[in-house]
Amino acid sequence: MEQRRLGRTGLMVSVLGYGCGVVGGLMVRGAPADRERSVARAIEAGVNYFDTAAAYGNGESERNLGQVLKALGSGARDVLVGTKVRIAPEERTRLGATVIASLEDSLRRLGREQVDLFQLHNPISEAPGPRELTPQMVLEEVVPAFERLREQGKTRFFGITALGQPAALRRVIGARVLDTAQIPYNLLNPSARAPLPAGLPVHDFEGSMRDAVAAGMGVIGIRVLAGGALSGEETRHPIAQPEVAPIGSGPSYRADVEQARRFRALVAEGYAADLVEAALRYAIAAPEMSTVLVGTATLDQLEHALAAAAKGPLSDEALARVAELQSGLAGG
């Protein structure tokens, strides 16, 4: 498995990261034996970064990941673990205390004394909303709490999920006090890295990936399969999240699936074996990308992702064809 540097952290992470969220569902709703087999297989294949969050299954993902890593013993000794805090509206008057308590609870569920990465899960906006925090809140209250946790040895590094208003995110990223950014990037929306094709009706991330790299941050790709829509199939596995709200792409999961099917041309023209492979290899073709997270419902889905990653990034010719297809989305 190819490894890449995670920005200023100096950590080397596998280009394919293991997503333990609710969309794939295995680490929340899967059988214990299936979870253990999947994590063991990922480690065997060279995956070394595992991403979870307190919000995933109300802590179930963290508990289950901790149990699996404990069961695997020395075989899981070298894995890197990241988790996240999501701050509720009623907790805004005590941001720092909430951040600290959240990680302490996460560590108890994970059965660890330290995580490698702790991230803010809230969107960032110039005006606070139901879920959003302002740049001032992040820089003046959340970051000092992160720094205190690092001083206490409870996390090695910290970062954000780069969702929200681009101008607000630029303020936070530009402060150069964060180590990582989780950024949506996929065939349906390339705007975190490249200019958005004119007329493409998706959220413009305005080059947030480039901004993060310029600030020395490691980039963690999320929604690289658009929540599963880039399989081109609307039917979801029973373990997977039944309904997935798009992040930065179309108005609905069904609309994303319809747009995804236009990229079947990549398969027909021999650039990839299937849509999932095309989507994964597109994401890892971004040189700014440190690792891309993929959540799964089954071991077979994991094997599929491992095989795709092993083929490496899409060719320059294939990427040029992708750009043509993306322009077609804007026109269609």
Description:
With about 325 residues, the chain is an alpha/beta fold. It is built from twelve helices and ten strands. The protein has helices at about 25-30, 30-45, 60-70, 95-110, 135-150, 165-175, 210-215, 255-260, 265-270, 275-285, 300-310, 315-330, and strands spanning about 5, 10-15, 15-20, 50, 80-85, 115-120, 155-160, 180-185, 220, 290-295. Strands 3-4-5-6-7-8-9-10 form an eight-stranded parallel beta barrel, surrounded by five helices. A two-stranded antiparallel sheet has the order 1-2. Helix 4 (about 95-110) crosses helix 5 and helix 5 packs parallel to helix 6 (about 165-175). It is globular, with a radius of gyration of 19 Å. It starts with a strand and ends with a helix. The mean pLDDT is about 95.
User: Average pLDDT, to the nearest integer?
Assistant: 96
Taken from the alpha-carbon principal axes, the silhouette is globular
Give the structural class.
Answer: alpha/beta
Distance between the termini: 37 Å
Uncertain segments are: none
Multimeric state = single chain
Helical fraction: 25-40%
The amount of beta strand, in percent, is 5-15%
Please list the strands of the largest sheet in the order they lie side by side. 3-4-5-6-7-8-9-10
User: Tally the helices: what do you get?
Assistant: 12
Computed over alpha carbons, the radius of gyration is 19 Å
Main beta sheet: 8 strands, parallel, barrel
Secondary-structure element order, N to C: EEEHHEHEHEHEHEHEHHHEHH
Per DSSP E runs of 2 or more residues, the count of β-strands stands at: 10
